[in-house]
Write a structure and sequence with these properties.
Elements lengths: L1 E3 L24 E5 L15 H10 L1 E2 L1 E3 L5 E3 L2 E5 L5 E6 L13 H14 L1 H7 L2 E6 L4 E6 L6 H6 L7 E2 L2 H4 L16 E3 L9 E6 L23 E5 L4 H10 L4 E2 L8 H4 L4 E4 L6 E7 L9 H10 L2 H8 L6 E2 L24 H15 L6 E6 L8 H12 L3 E6 L1 H7 L13 E7 L28 H11 L4 H17 L3 E7 L3 E4 L19
Helix pairs in contact: 2-3, 8-10, 13-14
Length: 527
């Protein structure tokens, strides 16, 4: 039996009534403008970055992920049997929910079962699971039918849907219903009475939280909270946010529009920098279930018509902060390659000519494409406009439907006809931490299952390869499988890769030790 703990691994409806207000004279408040407004709360049901960041404020996972991509104990230490079929997780001392009740292993059982119904890789994991049970209040045991090497990685992954643990009474909520009572065991408590969807979210320090002893690293290790209160305040536009941080009304802006960075350069009270070193990939997603993109040749025509450089120049502007990238896994990860990315070769004019040729031969009948455009997420506002113009030039009929990001997030999950509120195409972006291998990459799920991520492509060979990746014996073998998956992804036009960018944060100099990570982290920072 191999045991992993501190030494082995190197080292409220909502909960307004569950905290005690701090004395006014002691209160330190950090005010942040996040990259999108928080309009929904259930972190098991959304891949939106803002919901995931909210999840890490309130909830924890059994394991955390450090900056070397390694799973580490968080809520629990763990042991793995020699035959790799039994995983035993022992909850650490002092864990309790924000309502004062103790965390028990049954909570984790219910939470993992709920998470796995929504997270694609979690669903894959469950096909290997023989049983998950609480063998005592502190011990959770997972028994497998056959070895499944990525199990620890999946329970630790920070994206796109982490395996957040919540009380059993909340985790028993059917996966089709929202959990709205935010009772977690994490370092912050959610203040229900001050929540205004789309405008403001407020968190206070969990005074009963005991951090781990290991150094903090991404979502692993000690989560030491040095401020009393965190306020997420929505701003109507980036210029307003810039004015607010310069005046001191705001302490941090999660993502600054690149072309406005010069406005901050001369202010010695504001610092800027890249806090997510992995960056993010912009993706244009097809709805494979509805015409015209149920036809792979029509999708292929779009792939040739769109242009990475035009899209990234328009959206980001400064090439110091973006790069063109043929890889589905990210530009700078071990599995990156240019296999299958012929649609990116040649000049923009040459690709447009190819797009017109493919579209003319595809049988496309002029069916309008409904392109969704978010109006309140700056980094994704321009791509739909640029893409629509390129597609029209290729011969498509395109309608752009403008809506807020929350509405887009909800609408993308429906596959009803466009006339009844459906969609054909939209842009989003994925942190590289959520796409860097075939197991976690939701966009390459070829099952077509209703619970897979929006777009629902179907490709049996992809699923065979994803299963083979799980049992690959070496990195070289994984790379070969990953290349074949990428070739199919591009040949079958699962989605369009619009390029990769690094987001820049801004913060007042009063903030010290602003941490780096796959999401914006609010532990470790002080004011």
């Amino acid at each position: 039996m191999k045991t992993f703990g501190l030494k082995a691994l190197g080292c409220a409806a909502l909960v307004a009534s569950t905290f005690t207000a701090l004395p006014v004279w002691a209160e330190t408040t950090l005010t942040a403008v996040m990259q999108a407004p928080l309009r929904s709360l259930d972190p098991h049901l959304s891949t939106a970055q803002i919901v995931r960041t909210h999840g890490f404020m309130v909830f924890e996972t059994l394991l955390g992920m450090d900056d070397k991509y390694q799973p580490q104990p968080q809520m629990a230490d763990f042991a793995v049997s020699d035959d790799m079929l039994t995983y035993t997780f022992t909850l650490r001392d002092g864990l309790q929910w924000h309502d004062g009740t103790p965390v028990v292993a049954e909570d984790a059982v219910a939470s993992i079962n709920r998470w796995s119904q929504k997270d694609g890789s979690g669903g894959t994991m469950m096909t290997y699971v023989e049983s998950i049970e609480a063998t005592s209040d502190k011990v959770l045991t997972i028994k497998l039918k056959s070895p499944f090497a990525p199990l620890l990685e999946l329970l630790a992954k920070p994206s796109p849907i982490p395996a957040f643990i919540m009380p059993k009474r909340l985790a028993d909520t059917p996966v089709g219903e929202q959990v709205i009572e935010m009772v977690g065991s994490g370092p912050f408590k959610f203040v229900a009475d001050e929540y205004r969807p789309g405008d403001q979210a407020v968190y206070v320090k969990n005074m009963d939280y005991t951090p781990r002893e290991e150094p903090s690293s991404w979502t692993a290790g000690a989560k030491v909270v040095n401020v009393d209160k965190v306020v997420w305040q929505a701003m109507p536009d980036m210029q307003t946010s810039i004015n607010a941080i310069q005046s001191g009304d705001v302490d941090l802006i999660e993502q600054v529009t690149i072309d406005l960075l010069p406005l901050l350069a001369m202010n010695d009270e504001v610092e800027t920098g890249i806090k997510n070193p992995l960056g993010a990939q912009v993706t244009g997603r097809f709805n494979h279930r509805l015409p015209p993109f149920d036809n792979p040749q029509v999708r292929k025509a779009v792939m040739y018509a769109l242009d990475q450089e035009t899209i990234m120049q328009t959206a980001i502007g400064n090439p110091d902060f973006f790069q063109l990238c043929p890889s589905i896994y990210g530009c700078e990860v071990p599995l990156a390659s240019d296999v299958g990315a012929e649609y990116l070769a040649g000049t923009a004019d040459e690709r447009m000519a190819k797009a017109k040729e493919i579209l003319a031969a595809s049988g496309y009948d002029g069916t309008p494409v409904l392109m969704m455009q978010p109006t309140d997420l700056t980094v994704l506002t321009t791509q739909p406009i640029v893409a629509a113009e390129r597609m029209r030039e290729a011969g498509f009929t395109v309608d752009v439907a403008s809506m807020d990001w929350s509405t887009l997030q909800s609408r993308k999950n429906g596959w009803q006809p466009v006339a009844d509120g459906g969609w054909n195409f939209f842009f989003t972006y994925w942190g590289v931490a959520g796409i860097w291998n075939p197991l976690v990459h939701s966009l390459i799920n070829g099952s077509g299952d209703d619970n897979s991520w929006a777009g629902w492509p179907v490709n049996a060979r992809i699923e065979e390869l994803r299963a083979a990746y799980l049992t690959a014996g070496s990195l070289d073998e994984q790379k070969e499988i990953a290349k074949e998956i990428q070739k199919i992804t591009w040949d079958d036009a699962f989605y369009f890769n619009a390029g990769e960018f690094k987001s820049v944060a801004a913060w007042r100099t009063e903030l010290k030790d602003v941490p780096a990570g796959p999401i914006t982290l609010f532990w470790g920072v002080s004011k």
